[in-house]
Amino acid sequence: MVFSAMRMSNRYFIQLAAPVALVFAVLGWMGFLAPNVAFAGGAVGCIGVLFAAARLKGALLERAESDLAIEGSLREEFVRQSRLAESYEVILDAIPDPVLVFRRDRRIIHANRAVIELLGYDPIDSDLTAAIRNPDVVASVEDVLAGGGGITRTVEFTRGGNVEQYLLAQLVRLSSTRDIGPAAVLVIHDLTAIRRTMEMRADFVANVSHELRTPLSTIVGMVETLQGAAKDDPEARDKFLKIMEEQGYRMTRLVGDLLSLSRIQANEHARPTEIVQVRSILETAARMLESESQKNQTTISIEASEDLPEVVGEAEQILQVFQNLMHNAVKYGGEGSTVRVVPHIATSGTVSVSVLDQGDGIPAEHIPRLTERFYRVDKARSRAMGGTGLGLAIVKHILNRHRGGLSIESEVGVGSTFTVTLPVARRSKKRARIHRAM
């Protein structure tokens, strides 16, 4: 800018001095002025113009220096505000709970990563009511912004979906006087795990008291018989001890499945983030059931291609899903049958795996209730085969956590097909943040 000012002053000097010298030269040539007078007048005029140009140059230099100082101050302020915004974003992202900052018009201007994990998208620059679709929360936001309910407000609400979440919203009004600045902060606490724990305690007591009553009664009755009439009967003793052993193993399996189901439900609201190879999971599940399939003379055929996509999930739980389904297919498919495991790659970003058996099939009226706890189509047959009635319930809750699905098709006399659907893993895209003026 300084050099441009110097070039400008030189240009002005040439443009002003040339006409003055030309006027005196013309007057001298026409005889109106003596030659020496015309020369002296032209020289004096040029010197005056030179002094004027020098003063103009000084003024322009002073203005250029002032502009440079202002530009430097603006640049420093811009850098300071950028660093402040970055540090503000880092602080928000470090908070584990979802945090939303919004203006008086409910427009969201800041949201941390926990909000994106909760909602599944970045809500910045959208209306708060579009992100939190709950009338109680919206009403509390209006009260806090209007100053009617004080500067803070707490609201409990639920959020639906594959898994219902119990949330606590805390609202705090800020002391900003500008319409475009932050007006309030919304912090969301997830109470789902606490609620699930309370529900599981009650369910566990009810389920255990119901399902353990029969085997416990059987064991107690046989102990009393062995202590009385069958005390000296070796044949009856051996028979009763075998039954007691079976009932003891049944209770062990039942308690194990109940504890497994409780652990799964406790974390059902937390979506897994690992990347899992579906093909290796299927092969592992088949290997774990080799002894069972050989005992029933059943063949497990995995028809998986090499390019089967990866899925997002927890490997141990996905293995449990396919192990339960394959075990049921081997157990109820009949001797000499074949269990087919067939993956399908869908176009909607999901992969499906179907487990097909050649069993007796399931009547249509029972299919909607198969994933309920302790529901059995044939209770006597299921218990005789060692079933607890919790296998498909465990499958359902694991798939809920993975945001997947289970569909069941069956034809009596032909067999059943259980199809698991899971979301395909995608490369994470770098999060784009939109900064708004404070």
Keywords:
five-stranded antiparallel β-sheet; elongated; five-stranded mixed β-sheet; Helix Hairpins; 53% helix; 13 helices; 438 residues; alpha+beta; Beta-Lactamase; single chain; disordered C terminus; disordered N terminus
Query: What CATH architecture label of the largest domain applies?
Result: 2-Layer Sandwich
Which descriptor suits the 3D outline? Answer: elongated
Uncertain stretches: 1-6, 428-438
Output the CATH topology of the largest domain. Answer: Heat Shock Protein 90
What top-tier CATH class of the largest domain fits best? Alpha Beta
- The rounded Rg comes to 41 Å
What's the pLDDT, averaged over the residues?
77
Helix content: 40-55%
- Ends apart, CA distance between termini: 32 Å
The CATH superfamily of the largest domain is identified as Histidine kinase-like ATPase, C-terminal domain
Strand order of the largest sheet: 2-1-5-4-3
Discrete helix count:
13
Tell me the series of helices and strands, N- to C-terminal: HHEEHHHEEEHHHEHHEEHEEHHEE
Counted beta strands: 12
Largest sheet: 5 strands, antiparallel
